[in-house]
Amino acid sequence: MIRRNRRYKSNRDRTGTYVRKWRGLLWILPGFSGVLIFYLLPFGDVVRRSFLGAVDNRFAGIDNYRTILENGAFLLAVKNTLKFTVICIPVLILTALVCAVVLYRSRYGGIIKSAFLMPMALPAVSVAVMWRLLFHSQGLVNQWLSHLGVIGKDWMNTEQAFWVLVLSYIWKNLGYDIVLWMAGLAGISENIYEAARVDGAGDWQCFRNITLPNLKSSLYTITVLSFLNSFKVFREAYLVAGDYPHESIYMMQHLFNNWFRTFSFDKMAAAAVLESIVLLGLILLLQKAWDSKEKY
Amino acid sequence: MLMQRNSDRKREQRKNFHAGQKLLWGLLALLALATLYPVIFLIAGSFMGQDELGTYLGAVIAGREGYADFPLLPHYPTLRHYVEILLDSPEFFVMFWNSVRITFGVLAGQLVVGTMAAWGFAKYEFPWKKGFFLIYMILMLMPFQVLMLSDYLILDKLMLTNHLWGIILPGIFSTFPVFIIYRFFTEIPDSLLESARLDGAREWQLFYHIGLPMGSSGVIAAMVLGFLEYWSLIEQPLTFLKEKSLFPLSVFLPDITSVRQSGMAFAASVITFLPALLVFLGGQDYLEKGIMAGAVKE
After folding, report:
1. Model confidence at A8: pLDDT above 70
2. What contacts B89, CB < 8 A, 6 or more positions away?
3. Sign of the Cα pseudo-torsion (B113, B116, B121, B126, in order)
4. Could you say which of 1.10.287.130, 1.10.3720.10, 1.10.10.10, 3.30.70.330 is the CATH number of the domain covering B88-295?
5. Cβ-count burial of A189 within 10 angstroms (0-12 exposed, 13-18 middle, 19+ buried)?
6. Whole-angstrom distance between the N-terminal and C-terminal Cα of chain B?
7. Residues forming beta bridges with residue B144, ordered by sequence position
8. What is the residue extent of each domain of chain B?
9. A199 and chain B: CB distance < 8 Å anywhere?
10. What's the alpha-carbon Rg for chain A, to the nearest Å?
11. Is there a contact between B187 and B120 (Cβ–Cβ < 8 Å)?
12. Can you tell me the distance from the alpha carbon of A96 to that of B36, in angstroms, rounded to the nearest whole number?
């Protein structure tokens, strides 16, 4: 035992503190060089371009930013994205919470949870095929509605397209959020419930006074992750409605695609920088919440 | 007496609770069925003959009056659309293989580069580690649209646009799997590594013989999530690939609203879905672990 210890010590002296200090960096070096080449350096170039004129490549100050902030398409995309998240995220999070609480204690929860997770595996093309049949003006949804005596709508070519997109997002992300909530529920100690039950607390009281307060930190994470996932809803919107969808579902990705097609790299650069700043703020908030939880 | 009354009240409460619970359960089961409906619909449709599809969906695909209608199961099941796709449409195979190349290329790369980086972050201290990690996290959370132009600029410089490698390489260096695997690596006790070091194990041996086996569920979780992501990739191929022969299945959208193609559209969607479904069914536990790893810090 003692000999081993000595060998270890001399070994450590030989390797030297310098190597030891940087050893960890060697592990991330292959990955990080790729990250540098494919993400960080080109993004730096994008930041540079956001200050250059489109035609002459000369320094243009904040002209590009001013242009996009006055651009109708940009404002429309921002407005739709904001409206979309403000409506979707509370609905999704609350629905997922109710589902998670019910499923958490039940025996067959696993099967139902699988059903909710399934949409995650369904490729967006398959979803698009279904949506075309379901939400066509003579499609299945309208047929069901006609049984109820409601006159159907042309879902994809009117304002209703927005609600179809909301539904798609919730449909696709419900399982994901349920899993997150259930992870939060699993973190609450069973002892607290038992103690409360001994004191005569009912189920509703337990839920309100124990479950909800203990899920606060989960709520934060789930909100941010749901927000970031909401940018992926473009996939379905694109496949169903193409490059020029109804204006109620014209999202940021449509805008970027259209600018990309017309080589408006100056506008794209400025918009990318603006959007990344907003998202960066959100991500740092998330980081801060995680750190404070750690201390706690 | 008091205890008697107390237990009575409790029983009463439990009864109420059960009724409420059952109602919630019923609602939830309904919601789950509704969630699954598109999947069932898709599979049923793929086994329906052209005539049957025409009858039910005529309103949508042939511009007939009235509404489309759809039974839960086909009355005259047929495999014709599958046969047609699998034996009669070579372009479908080309796309299938493109999807396989993209997905497995990315996953194989992530398996090497991503696990190594995750190991470095989880088990070593080095200068600016926090800063590096923050960069990885920020990149993981950025949507494609933000990185789209920078992606294009570098691929253009490396002449990788209109090339499958232009999709695969940025995917390999995605920071998402690093983040997931990192979580699982941190759970391996340091004392284990120390004692292995005492026995003279080299650093790469620690990674290969302790890290990978003990963190395997994290690696699998990252692979499952990665498979679902890259199998259904849309934005990148649509932006960077111009040649149709390079398109993966995930952007192949047959026109379901035409009479001739509707059956094929169903079958093609099911075939596209099938690999993802198998991965999902086989890896659901890992999928859930992966989702949680993305959210809970330690």
Report:
1. no
2. B264
3. negative
4. 1.10.3720.10
5. exposed
6. 49
7. none
8. 30-68, 88-295
9. no
10. 26
11. no
12. 16
Question: Distance from first CA to last CA of chain A, Å, rounded?
Answer: 39
Does A127 touch chain B if contact means CB atoms closer than 8 Å? yes
Indicate yes or no: CB of B277 within 8 angstroms of CB of A40: no
Interface contact B141-A283, CB threshold 8 A:
yes
* Structure confidence at residue A96 (pLDDT): 92
CA distance A173 to A166: 11
Residues 6+ apart with CB under 8 A from A15: none
**B28/A103 CB distance under 8 A:** yes
Closest CA to A241 of A170, A156, A134: A156
Q: Is the pTM of this model over 0.80?
A: yes
Strand partners, B48: B77
Confidence category of residue B122, pLDDT binned at 50, 70, 90: very high
Burial class (CB in 10 A: 0-12, 13-18, 19+), B164: middle
What length is written for chain B? 298
Which of B17, B135, B272 is closest, CB to CB, to A123? B272
Chain A hits for B119, Cβ within 8 Å:
27
Residue A13, both tokens: 């002296």
- How crowded is the C-beta side of A249, counted as CA atoms within 13 Å? 31
Tell me whether A91 touches chain B (CB under 8 Å). Answer: no
Q: CA-CA distances (angstroms) from residue B50 to A130, A141, B57?
A: 17, 22, 10
Give, in order, the Cα–Cα distances in Å from A45 to each of A48, A108, A269, B149. 5, 53, 9, 10
B1-15, B93-107, B153-167, B273-287: least confidently modelled range: B1-15
What is the residue-averaged pLDDT of chain A? 82
Question: pLDDT for B198-217, tens place per residue?
Answer: 998 888 899 999 999 999 98
- Name the token pair of A169: 């997002």
Question: In sequence order, which residues have a C-beta less than 8 Å from that of residue A225 and are 6 or more positions away?
Answer: A180, B294, B295
A207 touching chain B per CB within 8 A: no
Best CA proximity match to A123, nearest among B223, B255, B232: B232
| Whole-Å CA distances, A117 to A60, A120, A171 | 48, 6, 9
Round to whole Å and give the CA distance between B231 and B225. 10
